[in-house]
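[agent] plan:
  1. take the single chain provided in the ticket
  2. run structure prediction with default settings
  3. attach structure tokens to the ticket
  4. add a short note for the reviewer (M.T.)
[agent] executing step 1
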Amino acid sequence: MTAGPHDVGAAALACLHADGRAESDAGRYAGPVRTVRAVVAPERGGEHVASLFTKIIENEIPGVFVYEDERCAAFLDVQPMTEGHVLVVPREEIAHWVDLDDDLSAHLFAVAKRIARAQNEAFECEKVGLMIQGYEVPHVHIHVWPTTSLADFDASRRADFTDAAELEPAAEKIRKLL
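[agent] step 2 finished; step 3 output follows
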């Protein structure tokens, strides 16, 4: 598999190479130990390979976290659509959002809503966007980001890869309001 410009895009504070190596200039997140329950994906030939998001949640790849609980984690996107762009990701690897059980789906959307309220207060925005697309990483993730116009929904306008030091001020604004 060859990595394209958006293949690792949504959340790693690192470059994930096609051979599985990861590299980063950022330090590792010094938060609590995390556990992820993964499922074996048939499209992976029955062999489990942790998703990029699982590696972030398990602290194998650094991330700038704003929220965590026993069912999900939320961290800043390293290619944000706007400042404060967060991904809400279940700990369990599920490739398509329609396969989430109802309780987990409700929990993820409740967390996304809580983060959106914090973003709405922390950033100068008219609304907070929400999107589930899942083409870049086969692990459910909800994009939540401050918006001021429809143009903020244009993925071609995403920022280049952003390092942890640049993301931390936005994360701190969100954390203070959660």
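[agent] step 4 note for reviewer: The chain is about 25% helix and 15% strand.
[agent] ticket updated
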